[in-house]
Amino acid sequence: MALLRTETLTKAFGALTAVNGVTLEVQAGTLHSIIGPNGAGKTTLFNLLTGQFPPTSGRIVFDGRDITRTPAHRIAHLGLARSFQRTNVFPALSILDNVWIAAFARGRSWRGLVWRRSDRYTEIVERARAALADVGLADKADQPAREISHGEQRQLELAIALAAAPRVLLLDEPAAGLSPDETQKMVALVRELKGRYTIVLIEHKMDIIMGVSDRVSVMHFGSLIAEGTPAEIQRNPEVRRAYLGGMVAE
Amino acid sequence: MSRTWLAVLAAVVVLPMAVRHAIATEIWIFAIFGLGLNLLLGYTGLLSFGQSTFFGAAAYVAGYLLKHSAINVFLALAIGIAVGAVSAALVGYLCVQRSGLYFIMLTFALNQMFYFIAYQWTTVTGGEDGMPGIGRPALLAVDFRNPLAYYVFVAALFLLSLWIMKRIVESPLGKILQAIRENDVRAEAVGYDVPRFKLLAFVIGGAFSGLAGVLYAMLFGIVPLEAIGFVFSGNVVFATLIGGSGSLYGPIIGSFVFIWLSESVSVVWERWPLLLGVAFVIVVLFFRGGCVEAWARFWSWRERRRAPAGIAP
Questions:
Q1: ipTM of predicted assembly, 2 dp
Q2: CATH number for the domain running over A1-79+166-250
Q3: Which is nearest to A240 in space by CA: A25, A21, A37, A34?
Q4: Per-residue pLDDT reduced to its tens digit, A133-163
Q5: Which among A50, A105, A121 has CB closest to B192?
Q6: Which DSSP letter does residue B261 get?
């Protein structure tokens, strides 16, 4: 059964229909990629899935439950965590606090919210440190987030999503703006997370997509124009015309 | 950490010897007021220009009851704290839905509304003349009409307030508020209901303002109309920024500078607000972190100057 499903999901901003009748099924335990040229509506789709804004029409079903108009802060508690395309961390807070915040949000109880010292929540601290270890930032825990490199901020971005103990991980271009070296590291990281989480991945870089995805959906001008395994997508003539062009021509 | 507490304790002991008791008392009252504002300004990143709403409302209500119902000191404080928290909940509920400039203007506009209610409702508040005749009921055998006794009482409440605020900013709530200040979109995305947390910050800040308001009314025996005016709201923002909004202790230093200037220098030189203006310009241009940052920079500058000298043969 699909863990996350959308039914003819549509979002219009005035005359612009950014997401147009998208019906998508993400199977539990898989890595499902969404590709498409710039402005195809991929990030808008993520914003709809995580409740950043409500859709114009259509439905979103997560684990058999309709979450269509659920506000963002509730969706996080259901186990849908996302990373952002443009780095979106808490700059003045330490790396550890960045992740701690996400871990605490999903904690079992908020007892002591205004009184208990935050470092006394050992279980939360451990989960935060584990998320940092997963992305390889454990040794920088005490540095403020604004002082680390762009590549490390991308890793932190991912760690914040992981610390929320998600059931579905929505990754919005995790390798955006990374050097080839850093991109390789990020690919290895995503590969490692695959299987542990159900992942929906938006990506531009084809080499990443084709290597790690179980399924690929292609978006173009707000609509899904194809879906299949990476191999099927690479052979699909419509996809080639719309997006891949010369990139897989060889 | 404990060194900072020692410094605060030393200040509490030394202050009444250095300045008049009334001024010393006012400094700690204003510091409590500043602590409450700074939870909003420094920790949550919300510039509230209407803190005197809660300060004044608490002063009027508790002052009225002190005058007419002869309630005891603790009841007066409890009522003041409750009035501060409830009025902050009302104002906050309307304000946290907006952000940026609209938020600031709304806190200001609601402050003006409360001001004109107090201005018009002369039978209760005394309007422009203020509400005089507020006593300081004795507690057990301690007569608070003695300025030193009242000073000790206020200073103890200030230390208690500081300790409570320290616990709050070191709690998960403190971290969440800072996360909201840094990036409210992400805070919402990881699972926090941002408007509700802002409202909680408002209520806590309002409770501190309410406490300060009652203590102020008892200190001067009167609630002047200014206590609920926008200038008063602005003063606590200025004081906090001059002291340093990035630190828990900033508002305390700010209160000291502000009250000392306004009460001591104003006697010598009636154009004293000019000094305040200059201090404010310096802070905005060079020391965004106020006195606290200036102090920290001075020490790191000294360290750097001394370090190479030590290494040189």
A1: 0.88
A2: 3.40.50.300
A3: A37
A4: 999 999 999 999 999 999 899 999 999 999 9
A5: A105
A6: I
